[in-house]
Amino acid sequence: MKWIRRLLLVIVVLVVGFGVVMVWTAQRTERPVGFELARTTDPDGKPLAVGIWYPTQARTWPTTWLGLGLMDVAADAPVAGRSLPLVVISHGNSGGPGSHADLALALANAGYIVAAPMHGGDNYADQSAAGTVGWLGGRTRQLHATLDYLLKTWPGHAQIDPNRIGAFGFSAGGITVLTAVGAQPDLARIAQHCADTPEAICNLLRAGNSPLLNPDEAAKGNRYLPDARIKAAVVAAPGLGFTLGPGALTAVRVPVQLWSGDQDTVVSYATNIQPVRQALGAGAEFHSVPGAGHFSFLAPCGPLAPPLLCTDQGQFDRKAFHQSMNASVIAFFEKAIR
């Protein structure tokens, strides 16, 4: 029976050691940040989960798991402050509220309330809406629903300044945020583009036998409702940029900060970011990140995160990059909506 006791001892030591590592690597902030996972509904009446970060005076604990790691936050604590600015985050395809948890924490540390919806039908647990005709328009409406909830129903809504709202979007979330501030993509352009210049999104659409590869069907999805409440946008590696034809960004009148990784093989600069940059012209603050791949824009990974999302090329330091990027995003919002 000694071997059983020894085995149990080893297991206990491993579990305790792993717990220590997880706590030690939890994402932390200088000032206390509160967090809650709220529930509301999307425009179709379906459940919509929303991660919410905010300033608080409560004590934090490194025990809240979200996305790629632990967060040192005060769960469900009271909000501290008045007339606080709000930033809504739109994650990429197959992502979730924790995809950009480090940015959310940094913004909350700087005095912002941050809300990240888990896009229904396009998240790590449910891909039923991805590639459908209503995919992109549905994502945009979910951003509207998130803002409605934060400004009208959320218990801390009275502490939000409704005149100071920004948005951040990555990949599919990037084009989502662009539509929310006035962009009008033409999904009927997808079929020809994928025939001429196949790229990652084309392979995904083909694998799913997407109706978006049929121009007539895809055109039915060209329904986007801009949200005038959003006063500034940060867009990282936006996908489907090739759907933005002449005049598609004419109605975008808010300041935009645009990011691209020069090693991004998932969303290429030439067919996705460049059209946005050229259309916005001097209205966009552009950042090209040397060595960054597509997933380099996701939050730095914890010990249990999947290698596919966490492995960067060469000696690229994702943690250091995010510290710099988060500071730039905060500085942009400070100027644009503060």
UniProtKB/TrEMBL annotation:
The keyword Hydrolase applies. It comes from Hymenobacter aquaticus. Keywords: Hydrolase. It comes from the Bacteria. GO terms for molecular function: carboxylic ester hydrolase activity; serine-type peptidase activity. One of its GO terms (biological process) is proteolysis. Signal peptide: none annotated. Residues 107-187 form the Peptidase S9 prolyl oligopeptidase catalytic domain. The keyword Hydrolase applies. This is Dienelactone hydrolase.
